[in-house]
Design brief:
The protein has five helices and 23 strands. The chain is of the alpha/beta class. Helix 1 crosses helix 4. Bound molecules: zinc ion.
Length: 428
């Protein structure tokens, strides 16, 4: 797997992102249950966000080539076409052939009057100049283009791509599929695919700004997944590229088979799960990917609600917390045999199997989701001595450590069977 540093940075034109620019690593060579019927019908859940907009058919993307007074435009047409083709390969696969970019290259190479240094120092002047040229040429949004992609000689400005989150993207220097495909994701309205890296705590504290990596999802082109990195299942949902029978919210215990989502298969199989947290402000999303070797080991876990509770960004959780020193999230998936518990509740998640060796659309992960049993006494977690054990629920030792599965551990249980409830010491 070639993981090359991308030639620069991407900046999202949001106030929240300014100043948070990070290097964007990319793989320029591509590479982004038993559904046992327990999942709730999507239409009846309030937790899965509404689809922002269904993108189908084509959107017109027009490449605008620009040279400067001291730097001619240097990307040849074959290279542009190659990049555009690679981008469409990804978008067609992500949308299961429902969407693609209708590429065109504006026939005239524009000559901007300033120099590299001028525009590096004052980029907005170049933006204004480009817009004025399009107007002067009679090019109209909606008619001639839906998004224009302005590409120009490399300037020193600290990013390689920029988007206005709508109809304009600017590509600084080389015209690569990783950067341009990423900016076009912004033009569909998508934010970055982040990660949480909070040291030994895999969850971090929502609302904080020092425990995250802006581009931290290692597999998503909106993170640092590069030119073949499919959007995560939440973002595919937001742009309308998944069906209601493919993304489900789970509120019942069971083992769910989640099929690999990073392909163009459209078979009505489960591709993503959302599980509500014990705190209704948050949720966990699960998916499986088969393309990238490090993703194959288990379920990718993504948190919803980290920035603000209403925020629909995706936050990849590194289930091997404390590994930030290694410099990436590539050991982050919930590998077979690993488990974790909702930070705000009792629900437990465990990867029990993958379709080992099948790294195709038929790859899958079996995710066991265990909700607290009905009748379990409500109690706060990790806030004191826990001596409650219900035979149907989790157990804790006197230090509050989760003792689930330690059958020989002495515990106290609440017997509600006969007469008034009473405590029973289980000292098997
Ligand atoms: Zn970006």
């Amino acid at each position: 797997m070639n993981r090359n540093p991308m030639q620069g940075l991407c900046m999202l034109a949001l106030a929240a992102c300014l100043g948070l620019v990070r290097p964007l690593a990319a793989e320029e060579e591509m590479v982004c249950g038993t559904d046992d019927g327990l999942a709730a019908p999507l239409a009846k859940t309030a937790q899965i966000p509404k689809v922002s907009k269904i993108y189908s058919g084509k959107l017109k993307a027009m490449v605008i080539r620009i040279g400067f007074s001291d730097a001619p435009y240097a990307v040849d047409t074959a290279a542009i076409v190659k990049t555009n083709t690679a981008i469409n390969t990804l978008y067609r696969s992500m949308s299961r052939n429902a969407f693609e970019w209708d590429w065109r290259i504006y026939g005239i190479i524009l000559s901007a009057p300033g120099t590299r240094a001028d525009y590096g120092a004052n980029f907005s002047s170049l933006q204004s100049w480009i817009a004025s040229q399009l107007t002067a040429a009679g090019l109209k949004r909606g008619t001639d283009y839906d998004v224009y992609v302005a590409n120009f000689p490399l300037i020193t400005i600290g990013w390689s791509g920029l988007s206005n989150l709508r109809d304009a993207d600017w590509i600084n220097g080389s015209y690569s599929a990783g950067v341009t495909g990423h900016e076009l994701g912004h033009s569909l309205g998508l934010p970055h695919a982040h990660s949480i890296e909070a040291g030994p705590d895999m969850f971090g504290t929502p609302g904080t700004t020092t425990q995250t990596n802006e581009y931290g999802n290692p597999y998503d082109i909106m993170g640092h997944g590069g030119s073949t990195g499919h959007f995560n299942v939440l973002y595919k949902w937001r742009v309308g590229w998944e069906d209601a029978d493919e993304i489900k919210e789970v509120t019942s215990s069971g083992t769910y088979r989640i099929y690999a989502q990073d392909n163009d298969a459209h078979k009505g199989r489960l591709l993503g799960l959302r599980v509500p947290s014990g705190d209704a402000n948050y949720g966990y999303w699960f998916e499986y990917r088969a393309i990238t070797p490090s993703a194959r080991n288990g379920a990718a876990v993504m948190f919803q609600g980290f920035r603000t509770t209403a925020n629909l960004d995706s936050w990849f959780l590194d289930t091997t917390p404390g590994s930030r020193a290694s410099g990436d999230e590539s050991d982050g998936v919930l590998a077979v045999g690993k488990q974790f518990q909702d930070k705000y509740g009792q629900t437990a998640f465990k990867t029990v199997a993958i379709n080992n060796g099948t790294w195709t659309q038929d790859g899958y992960v079996d995710l066991q989701v265990t909700f607290p049993a009905a009748g379990t006494l409500p109690f706060a977690r990790r806030s004191g001595i826990r001596l409650i054990r219900d035979s149907r629920g989790p157990a804790y030792d006197m230090l509050g450590r989760d003792a689930m599965g330690l059958a020989s551990l002495p515990t106290l249980s609440l017997d509600q069977g006969k007469g008034s409830p009473h405590l029973v010491l289980n000292a098997r």
